[in-house]
């Protein structure tokens, strides 16, 4: 990576950092790691997890109440999900530890409270603020209810649909998520160490257990294919429903797991294909982690998945169960060396974190230049 010797102090702010293994948290931690290795760039993460040794960035622990505690509370205006409740409990601790003067630029993907907080602390000399569409772009284009008060100095769009929808309103850049191709790579693994049987075909679903990810639909489809085992890795409000249905329809063939991040590459290596049935995905780290490991993917056909996956995967209408089943049968035949090499080539060409980190750095420089110009500061 290159830089122009201008110092840059960046804060990534998200409650789940260093605590949960989900797409947004994994992406922010990976981007921060790349940026913090640049000369003249310092990066601080504010999250509710614990510090880790040997990281190039600074981590600040902020107490909060985890989202799981709010899963059964009513969904009301403003507090529409358990994530918003969690975000609200994050603010008091953040207010005590965060100083606007310590940073040139702040980054979050959480709305409304963190976006509002980071844009208002520091007055006219507040840090520039970048919002990333890790969880969707609805706050950026909706113009009703609390979404009327969204704002940012730069918007990172994680897929081309988001970019086209927002480019005329915000200062945007299309930047996908990435993967470490050295960490996620093809290889052999002892399935027994993961509690999985040998010599059986295994389908893997890596997903939050929420309705929009359609894990229940995946269980129903896979259950109809004889001898096929299904591993579901993730957690969320539908955990009981998912586990009960899996045991009911696939007794002895269903495996629900929650693994730490460092175990995920081995879990991918233990699978024969990845199934992901979400109809509207901001990006989907599961796609590129599977590609990097060489796995075929069965997922919903859309402009976004076509853009991401090119010709490497099996794209079907996942609202049709018969197409999902046919897609699984097709994907099980796509594990030859040529197919695996093609998936790896796509990752190395477009989705390595080193490239994504460079894209973020260049965009952050442009955001800071734009803000300085608005304020009449000569740089």
Task: Tell me what the structure shows.
This protein has helices at 23-36, 82-97, 113-120, 138-141, 160-166, 215-222, 239-249, 264-269, 285-293, 303-309, 321-331, 337-350, 353-375; strands at residues 8-13, 41-47, 58-61, 105-108, 128-132, 154-157, 172-174, 202-206, 229-233, 254-257, 273-276, 297-300, 314-316. The strands form 2 sheets. It has a 7-stranded parallel sheet with strand order 3-2-1-4-5-6-7, sandwiched between helices. It folds into 2 domains: 8-178 and 352-375, 3-Layer(aba) Sandwich (Rossmann fold), CATH 3.40.50.2000; 191-350, Glycogen Phosphorylase B (Rossmann fold). The chain has 379 residues and is an alpha/beta fold. The longest helix has 23 residues, at 353-375. It contains 13 helices and 13 strands. Helices cover 36% and strands 15% of the residues.
Largest sheet: 7 strands, parallel
CATH names the topology of the largest domain as Rossmann fold
What is the annotated CATH architecture of the largest domain? 3-Layer(aba) Sandwich
Distance between the termini: 22 Å
Q: Cα-atom Rg, whole angstroms?
A: 21 Å
| Mean pLDDT across every amino acid position | 94
SSE order, one letter for each helix or strand: EHEEHEHEHEHEEHEHEHEHEHEHHH
- In the CATH hierarchy, what is the superfamily of the largest domain? Glycogen Phosphorylase B
Range of strand content: 15-25%
Walk across the major sheet and give the strand order: 3-2-1-4-5-6-7
CATH first level of the largest domain: which class?
Answer: Alpha Beta
Shape, principal axes of CA atoms: globular
Structural class: alpha/beta
């Amino acid at each position: 990576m290159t830089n122009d010797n201008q110092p840059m102090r960046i804060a990534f702010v998200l409650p789940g950092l260093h605590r949960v293994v989900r797409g947004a948290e994994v992406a922010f931690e990976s981007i921060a790691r790349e940026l913090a290795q640049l000369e003249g760039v310092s990066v601080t993460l504010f999250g509710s997890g614990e510090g880790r040794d040997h990281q190039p960035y600074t981590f600040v622990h902020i107490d909060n109440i985890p989202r799981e505690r709010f899963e059964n509370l009513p969904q009301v205006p403003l507090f529409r999900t358990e994530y918003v409740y969690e975000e609200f409990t994050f603010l008091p601790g953040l207010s005590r530890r965060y100083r606007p003067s310590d940073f040139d630029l702040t980054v979050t993907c959480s709305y409304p409270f963190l976006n509002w907080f980071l844009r208002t602390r520091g007055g006219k000399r507040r840090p520039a603020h970048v919002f990333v569409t890790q969880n969707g772009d609805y706050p950026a284009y909706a113009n009703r209810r609390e979404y009327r008060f969204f704002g940012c100095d730069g918007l990172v769009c994680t897929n081309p649909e988001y970019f086209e929808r927002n480019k005329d309103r915000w200062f945007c850049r299309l930047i996908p998520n990435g993967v470490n191709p050295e960490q996620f790579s093809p290889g052999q693994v002892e399935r027994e160490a993961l509690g999985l049987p040998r010599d059986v075909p295994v389908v893997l679903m890596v997903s939050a257990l929420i309705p929009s990810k359609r894990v229940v639909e995946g269980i129903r489809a896979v259950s109809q294919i004889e001898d096929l085992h299904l591993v579901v890795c993730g957690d969320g409000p539908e955990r009981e429903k998912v586990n009960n249905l899996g045991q009911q329809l696939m007794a002895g063939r269903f495996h629900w797991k929650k693994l730490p991040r460092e175990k995920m590459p081995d879990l991918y290596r233990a699978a024969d294909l990845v199934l992901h049935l979400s109809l509207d995905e901001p990006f989907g780290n599961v796609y590129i982690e599977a590609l990097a490991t060489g796995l075929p993917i069965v997922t919903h056909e859309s402009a976004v998945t076509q853009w991401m996956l090119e010709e490497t995967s099996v794209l079907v209408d996942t609202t049709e169960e018969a197409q999902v089943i046919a897609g699984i049968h097709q994907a099980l035949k796509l594990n030859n060396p040529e197919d695996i090499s093609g998936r790896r080539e796509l990752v190395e060409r477009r989705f390595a974190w080193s490239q994504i980190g460079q894209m973020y750095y260049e965009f952050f420089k442009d955001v800071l230049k734009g803000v300085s110009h608005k304020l009449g500061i000569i740089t």
